[in-house]
Amino acid sequence: MATIVSGSAFNVNTDYVYTKPKINANNGKSIGILNKHNMKSLYISTPLMLTWGVNEWSDDKTGKKSFDLALQFPSEENSECSAFLKNMQELEMRIKSDVITNCKEWLGKPKMSSDAVDALWSPMLKYPKDKASDEFDYSRAPTLKVKLGYWEGKFKCGSDDITIYNETQELLFPNDDNNSIIGLIAKGSNIATIIQCGGIWVANGKFGVTWKLLQAVVKPRTTLSGKCHIVLSEKDKEKLVAPLDDEDDDDEPVKMVSSVTEVPDSDDDEPNVKDEHKEEPKEQVKEEAKQVEVEDAPKKKRIVKKKSDE
Fold it and tell me: Where is the composition biased (Basic residues) (predicted)?
């Protein structure tokens, strides 16, 4: 069974070691970070923290999907979260210091200054920016980014399934209820997690540390849909199952009254040719139609200008 280190008790001096760098499929490098006590993957448990929900991303070129979430450190005083934040800050400082020492082997650079490392470092802890200065505000609480492994339609952390539980440790995902991780870990949820350190990645001249979700405990959102919340009394239940009486037999039939409005014939209406049952010569019909057309139209004075011959 994997050894899990408490995030609030994690010690950067005694709890982890690095592996030799490896070249990956994208010609980048990866340096593993292992648990020093068993030389296996480093798993850390986090305190209960706020999250802004699961983010879904899609690559425009390949269509490949990826998922992540951010654990929000609280702004108010919390002993466990404060200790966890302090340990993550120390881990960042330690890794950047070790990059300077191992810059040749890890980054292929003969020498690096701390400023150069800061320029290439992709922060593990994300601080909000000040709107006025557009600079990072280190006085405010940061977030820790955690990735959700996803391939072949399944959420995975290495070879293990990512699992989500409620506060009574009942499995919510994956299960037969077709729950989704995005639906379970909603914006504003408070979750406690076990995260795996994916080690140091080096790509395109940048480097950073990846954290992956293995397990989470979350309280599901309260919802009214999918469950009946109507409480019936015993009397109402009996009334629902009782046979219906034919109460409409004694009712008098409703008389339908048709209302017809007669419209008087207008002297201007055209004669109904179909009602006369006789055919008239086509020329005569055309002539009468022409006469009616002329009579109906308002008479206008017609002025004809003659062109004088020059």
Answer: 299-310
